[in-house]
Amino acid sequence: MERVPNRTVLAYAATEFPSAMAAIPMAIFIPALYTRDLGLSLAAVGTLMMISRLTDMLTDPFIGLLSDRTRTRFGRRKPWIVAGTPIMLLSVYMLFVPAPPVGNFYFGFWMITLWLGWTFIYIPYYAWGAELSTDYHERTRIATWRTAVNVSGTLATILLPLASSLLFGYGKALNESLKLIAFGAMAFSAVTVTLLLTLVPEPPPIVTDRITIWRGIRVMWRNGPFKRLMLGFTIGGIGPALAAPLYVLYVNQIIKEDLAGSVILLVFYIGNLIGVGAWALLARRVGKRTAWLVGMSMMILSQPWYMTLGPGDLPGMMAILFVGGLGAGSFVALPAAMKADVIDIDRLRSGEDRTGLFFSVWSLATKMILAFSVGIAFWALDLAGFHAAGENGAAQLWALKIVFSGIPVLCYALAMAIVWNYPITEARHARLIGRLQRRAERAAAQAAAA
Fold first, then answer.
1. Is the pLDDT assigned to residue 8 strictly greater than 90?
2. CB 201 within 8 A of CB 220
3. Residue 423: beta bridge partners?
4. How many Cβ atoms sit within 10 Å of the Cβ of residue 361?
């Protein structure tokens, strides 16, 4: 299989940079801004974040299917990315730079609009990445670079406000940090989307047959490796989905540190960036499934140590974050590469190229579980009497520790059990691609003879 040029891979992966700059604050900082600083209740913010993701039940499969079947002289994926970029960036600005007073309607409206723009961009974008190569290891390379750029964007999210506060005295407060991040994401997005649209070729559909939607659903449901992979990934994803929006509260209430003035989170993403490369190298030796299982094991071993922390335990917090970041590096690039492999099974069985639809179903399932996770986390703390602003008693702090640290361990363990017997190896995938190529050759010969 021909290697995808480095220039193409980097131009494709670059779009993840502004995406990460916007996405990480959405998971970690925005809940704290709207509850702690702007006065919305924990239950209201959790519910609105959940509702905003539930709207994707309509938009994700619709955009995925349309993206697969779009035919323009610019390609299938590019028009959707062009349409979605201004929608997402406007939403980022409105959420990151709100003008108080801000109510529940404001927060909910712009959350829904944000995820609509995200769907327009990233369902076609991830499908495009899966189509750049059919090679087992090339797909890992593409997903690894994309993940590395994503982590780099996350590091920029942390370093930009820090550098600004040191140099100009602006960026220490949470609202100042988010304003800098919003403008940074908008500026980088203009550059990276231009690179994507001009330097990355969009491969034509591998298979051009078309089946009915209901038959396609039946074929998808019978794709056992896809169901196993999706279920393992989404259940494992509950862990970080529970912890991420509670991170600011955990540091404030348990460690007694001011998050805006620290770089605690930086060590997690440094470990994450190192881990992305390390797991990719391991995957070439032992396969994607085994490498991912090892990574999840590291997350299981590191997570319970958060329960031991208390006021002033900043070094311990940073050590746990670094080890957890190493393990988490396996959780993005490897499953993304595995997704592309299981879609090849569908191409063989359905006769249609439905990469966008598969990524939309994956995205939808993931969002539903993550949305309910955020809602459950905030509802649980609200029921325990936890206060985002102010002092909390021992019972409330233990509730925070259990949700932040204890429940994710169970999620990772269950995900490992589900993925344990995942069957797509490098050898099996090679046989699968061979069958697809032979069928394409027969179709071409029949067309030529006709």
1. yes
2. no
3. none
4. 20
| Phi and psi torsions of 132, nearest 5° | -70, -25
**pLDDT digits over 248-292, tens only?**
788 888 888 765 445 677 888 888 889 888 998 999 899 999 999
DSSP letter string over 364-414?
HHHHHHHHHHHHHHHHHHHHTT--SSS---HHHHHHHHIIIIIHHHHHHHH
How far, in Å, CA of 236 to CA of 232, rounded?
Answer: 6
For residue range 176-201, list pLDDT tens digits in order. 889 999 999 999 999 999 999 999 99
The tally of CA atoms less than 13 A away on the side-chain side of residue 283 is 30
**How much is the pTM?**
0.77
Q: What is the dihedral of CA 370, 371, 374, 376, to 10 degrees?
A: -100
Query: So what's the pLDDT on residue 259?
Result: 55
Q: How many CB atoms lie within 10 A of CB 65?
A: 18
**Separation CA 77–CA 56 (nearest Å):** 19
Q: Residue 213 above 70 pLDDT?
A: no
Burial letters 306-333, b for 16+ CB under 10 A, else e: beebeeebeeebbebbbbbbbbbbbbbb
Class for domain 7-442, per CATH? mainly alpha
**Amino acid of residue 182:** A
